[in-house]
Amino acid sequence: MTDRANWTRKLLIICVGLAATFPLAAEHVPPTPDGLAEGRAVSRLFVKSDNWEPMIEVAGHFGGEDTDFGYRAVRLGSYYRVHQNVKMGAFYRVQWGARHDDDWLLLDNGDWEWRETTARAEHVVIADVTPRFLLDFIPGENWVAAVKGRYLFNTFNMHQTLLARPQLTYFWLHNRRPILNVTAAYGAYMALNFSDQLVYRRAPYLDVVYHAGDLVKLNAGLARETVHWSSSQDLKDSGAPDYSVDQSSWQITLGLIFRVDP
Question: Rounded to two decimals, what is the model's pTM?
Answer without folding.
Answer: 0.85
